[in-house]
Amino acid sequence: MVIPHLTNEQRRAALAKAGLARQRRAEIKQAIKEGSCQLIDVFSAAGEDEAIARMKILDLLLAFPKIGEVKAQSIMEEIGIAASRRIGGLGYRQRASLIELLG
Questions:
Q1: Which CATH fold would you assign to the domain 8-102?
Q2: What is the DSSP annotation of the chain?
Q3: Domain spans of the chain?
Q4: Which end of the chain has fewer CB atoms surrounding its CB within 10 Å, N or C?
Q5: Is the pLDDT confidence value at 6 over 90?
Q6: What's residue 27's pLDDT?
Q7: Single pTM value for the model
């Protein structure tokens, strides 16, 4: 794949967009840690917000209290979610299983 040549203006716009996406994902993770956001809210927001839809499931699970790297990976294995899967790419059954496990 050839990387397209971007002008400085296009590069700045892309960096700004990426920064906003990282900020949005950080806000969601913080809300989950605080308990002010439920998993079902994240899934519904992913339909409207591309930044959330492109968030990795592993990062989402790590945001929950008392879930570390090993437990998150075991949850993903149990449900059948690949390590590279993102929120927007989850199937209905995978979402339902996560909601059942995590509330």
A1: Helicase, Ruva Protein; domain 3 (1.10.8)
A2: -PPPP--HHHHHHHHHHHHHHHHHHHHHHHHHHHTSS-HHHHHHHHTT-HHHHTSBHHHHHHTSTT--HHHHHHHHHHHT--TT-BGGG--HHHHHHHHHHH-
A3: 8-102
A4: N
A5: no
A6: 95
A7: 0.84
